[in-house]
Amino acid sequence: SQQGEEDPQALSIQEGENATMNCSYKTSINNLQWYRQNSGRGLVHLILIRSNEREKHSGRLRVTLDTSKKSSSLLITASRAADTASYFCATDASGTYKYIFGTGTRLKVLA
Amino acid sequence: DTAVSQTPKYLVTQMGNDKSIKCEQNLGHDTMYWYKQDSKKFLKIMFSYNNKELIINETVPNRFSPKSPDKAHLNLHINSLELGDSAVYFCASSLRGQEQYFGPGTRLTVT
Fold this sequence. Notes:
- Chain A has strands at 5-7, 10-14, 19-24, 29-37, 43-50, 55-58, 61-66, 71-76, 85-93, 99-101, 105-110.
- Chain A is mostly beta strands.
- Chain B is mainly beta.
- Chain B has no helices and eleven strands.
- Chains A and B meet through strand 4, strand 5, strand 9 and strand 10 of A and strand 4, strand 5 and strand 10 of B.
């Protein structure tokens, strides 16, 4: 299957530290997206990075994409307690528009 | 102004019953999705409609039947509910190939 895998499964850091989570996938993609899910809520879109892009920024978020390694990373800088959530990557096999979500990374930011 | 709304938010029912979940989006998107999130937070796509046409139909029991009366609505009807159907069901919408906007989810509990 094309299911993405995220690493680590869980991450606990202190407020102010940086958090890095990784996503690996299996097939060629059109784009890769990162989402956040707070406990008991729906997913919220963070960043979309296209297959021809290598890096993208949005506020404290930085996403990189390495299509040769079929992997992406999400960096959250200067983390806050409010960043505590699960983070998912989602990829679509080229031309399918069928998004496969990764297994998620549970981030806990301690105040 | 809720972008993607789902009703009901909670659904508790007995095995064998038939139930429906409704979804509406007011974002003008052309594509809508149904996802199932299990107890381990694994998110799996079930169906996707683009301009009222079914474009993704994953390996889902035929007890599940989606219906899209127009581009802004996507409903999910489930017949003969089973214990294993207990999960959180998310509706989402997007412009095709773009970031998805998720509803708040419907927590289905089958007893």
